[in-house]
From TrEMBL:
InterPro entries: AAA+_ATPase, ABC_transporter-like_ATP-bd, ABC_Transporter_VariousFunc, P-loop_NTPase. Pfam families: ABC_tran. SMART domains: AAA (SM00382). One of its GO terms (molecular function) is ATP binding. Residues 2-226 form the ABC transporter domain. This is ABC transporter ATP-binding protein. It comes from the Bacteria. Keywords: ATP-binding, Nucleotide-binding, Transport. CDD domains: ABC_DR_subfamily_A.
Amino acid sequence: MLDLKNVRKQYANFSLECSMQVKRGSITGLIGANGAGKTSIFKASLGLIHTDSGEIRMMGKTPQQLTNEEWEKIGVVLSDATFPNILTAEDVGAILKKMYHRFDKADFEEKCRTFAIPMNKKMKEMSTGMKAKLKILMAMSHQAEILILDEPTSGLDVMAREGILDALRAYMEQEERAILISSHISGDLENLCDDLYLIDQGKIRLHEDTDVLLDQYGILKVTESEFAALDKQYILAYCKEDFGYRCLTDQKQYYMENMPQIVIEKGTIDEVMKTMLKGSSRKGVSL
Ligand SMILES: Nc1ncnc2c1ncn2[C@@H]1O[C@H](COP(=O)(O)OP(=O)(O)OP(=O)(O)O)[C@@H](O)[C@H]1O
């Protein structure tokens, strides 16, 4: 559905180098710290920024080759793009109806009610959460085949976030759809996505099925002497801690069977990220 191959973009102090895939029928998550390059990937995928090299294919075409009809099949949330803030949700609905053949007004209004978005309040008078929800509903309002959602849950409280995640799951009930979503709230992605990409300083550091990540990845917490004796063949990254070393493995079972004395914690996304990112920093060393 969306394919990025060796895409490169050089800014003065930042270099993006990325390959990734979003498949039909799946939700792909992109996770990374502030400034890691998430928005740049979203903008490149939509042809909104020029890239220096590499291939980008959205539904088999470059962004420039997409027809208006094909653009209608893409629903987008970008943090710095929205309608003028003097418009109300009702005005937005009227505009979307003109823009998209497949805009479903009744469904849009129903969802606005469900998510407590007032129809007649100007966007500039709405809360941050209301505006965030409205942007997601806009992206979902025209039966798009792929949703490109850059930090859509940012600014939402727990209940609103859960509601939106449920709406995204319901959106995926129709086959052949796909979602690319970024978030810095790893719990959101852990519970929603089929596969995850971890990006750091413009590079994809890890790509894994979420189930595999949660089942097979683990964090080994070892003392200095345990670390010295550790069989490191399945250690992906490690970093120094006060107690010794924190090591990331994608073969938790191997260490549980062969070194039962070692403390092994579940590989939550936060733990995996922390170890991968620290492992490349001054404090630790990547293998
Ligand atoms: N137009 C630009 N000119 C120069 N540098 C840019 C430009 N746009 C982005 N950058 C740089 O590219 C890097 C990645 O930015 P990007 O917005 O893609 O990160 P991000 O992961 O989305 O961050 P955040 O989570 O804070 O939104 C940053 O260092 C940013 O300063």
